[in-house]
Amino acid sequence: MSVPAEPDLPAETHGHDRARVLGEGIAWTATWSLRIVLIALGATVLGLILGQLWSIFLPVFLGLIIASVLAPPVSLLRNRGLPSALATSLVLLLALALFGLLVWLVAPSVAGQAPQIVQGASGGLDQIQNWLGGPPFNLNSSQIGGYVQMATERLQQSAASIATGVLTGVSVVADGVINGVLALVLAFLFVKDGPKWLPWVRRMSGERAGGHLEAVMRRAWARVGGFIRTQALIGFVDAVFIGVGLVLFGVPLAVPLAVLTFFGAFIPIVGALVAGALAVLIALVVKGVGVAIGVLILILAVQQVEGNLLQPVLQGRGLGLHSTVVILAVTGGSSLFGIAGAFLAVPVAAVVAELLRYLSDQVDRRVSQEAEAQADHSHDEPPASTVAADGSVPEDSDVPRDDPGRSPGRTSLSPG
Question: What whole-number distance in Å separates Cα of residue 384 and Cα of residue 94?
Fold first, then answer.
């Protein structure tokens, strides 16, 4: 049984079609490569501008974060009839009073339990020295003393660098205080005049672009505000459980560690890891290995309750960000802008993700509209089979035909 041979295509046609397809693919790749390069260049320029003007953008970002926390109670008081300035002032003063109360509770605890930490650290150093003196190291006291002396001399040689670092730290603290005051002032203005911002943006940007900007800003504001308020509630629950557990274990600095756990909740994953590691380290130095293991188990249990119960119930879908994106955002923010960058990295990533979601929704909407328009256009055109080759229309066709008694091209029904 013979198999019929496939028809041979002309070599010229086959080569021409293949060249056309390859050319279209190369052109598509080149076009998108250029677009990606331009986007990367724009992002680089934006990052350079942000770095140069960080002293301006930082209080603005912090002010927006604080405003997202103050906005709901201010709106509640404003709806009760209070003037906007008065409502904002009352809520801001109450927030400052709560923060001052927190500092008043933490400061005496740190000052009173610092000697216990120093004593525990000294005992830990003695244990390390005894451990080094035994197997497998078998270092005698003179050898250990030599290493300590070497480390001391190295520190003395680096005294200038250490002093410079201390001065730098003092400068950083001063800048932090100034940025904090500016952030509070900006937060007051953002909350007081909040209802006026979006209409102003819409007027300045035009109706078409302003509508998109208003929609994106509303979605981003809702996302960031919900994240901050939810993380505050989750951090409070974590701080209470961990603080009570540290008190029961007899670990010093239980209240400051609980406060650190609360603020660490605003840096997902990384903040809880740092606060938990510090609590375990203090327990290890002061109370020993057994208590440190107990504290570690406590922290892991609280983190499991947070991840499996609090986060799904209180936050729902949360930020819609994968854990990898959160870790990379925190790492990038901390490496570029320090602690402030780590704190602001996740909200900024959430805003960017919300912008991408809005763009995706607009693309889907545009594609759906074009598909509907194409479907309507195809319904309006007569099918090809209803028109004969000579242009005549069959009798059984639904396509309107000219009256035979009229001249071609005339559509009027009036006589003459």
Answer: 76
Q: What is the DSSP string of 11-30?
A: HHHHHHHHHHHHHHHHHHHH
User: DSSP label at 139?
Assistant: -
Alpha-carbon distance of 253 to 242, in angstroms, equals 12
What angle, rounded to 10 degrees, do the helices at 84-133 and 270-287 form? 50
Give the span between the Cα atoms of 217 and 351, in whole angstroms: 9
For 167-176, which contacts have Cβ atoms below 8 Å and span 24 or more sequence positions? 175/55
Predicted confidence (pLDDT) per residue in 92-126, tens digit: 999 889 888 877 877 776 666 556 555 555 555 56
Contact criterion met (CB below 8 Å) for 330 and 270: yes
Give the C-alpha separation, 229 to 103, whole Å.
21
Is the entire prediction scored with pTM above 0.70?
no
Q: Can you tell me the distance from the alpha carbon of 10 to that of 18, in angstroms, rounded to the nearest whole number?
A: 13
pLDDT digits (tens, 9 = 90+) for 382-414: 555 444 545 454 555 444 444 444 444 444 333
